[in-house]
Amino acid sequence: MGIKLDHRDLGRRGEWLAERYLRKHGLKVLGRNWRCPAGELDLIATDGKRLIFCEVKTRGGTGYGAPAEAVTEDKARRIRRLARLWRDASRSPLQDSRYDIISVLWPPGGVPRIEHLAGAF
C-alpha cells in the first residue's frame, strides 16, 4: 500500500515524469511552469520545427474522470492565449505550434501510466 500524495505533490511529480517522457522521445524542453499574470503553462518544448505547449494532468484514479478530460474548451483557449504571450516574451523564431495533453494516471502505490495526446486541441 502506497502513500497518498496531496494533489499538488502528485501534480509536481506528474509534470516531472511528463518532462522526462518528452526528453526521452526526442523533444527539447524549453520551459516548465512558465507563469505570467494571465496564468501558467506546464511544459513548453520543441521538435526543432515547432513549439509544443503541453498541458499535464495527473490523477491518482479515475473517480473524477480520466486526467485529459479536465482540459475543457475554456482551458484550451487559455493555454492558446498563454502560448501567444510566451512566444512574445521569449522572442522565439518558431511560430508554428502544437497543443498537447500529457495525461498521467498514477494510483497510490502503483505504476504511473502516461498517455500523450499530440495535437489534442
UniProtKB/TrEMBL annotation:
Keywords associated with the record: Endonuclease, Hydrolase, Nuclease
Give the molecular function GO annotations.
Answer: endonuclease activity; nucleic acid binding
Superkingdom of the organism of origin: Bacteria
**A Pfam family per the record:** UPF0102
Give the matching HAMAP family: UPF0102
Q: By its UniProt entry, which NCBIfam families does this protein fall under? A: PRK12497.1-3, PRK12497.3-3, YraN family protein
The family classification in the record reads:
Belongs to the UPF0102 family.
What is the protein's given name?
UPF0102 protein EV186_103340
Question: Source species, please?
Answer: Labedaea rhizosphaerae
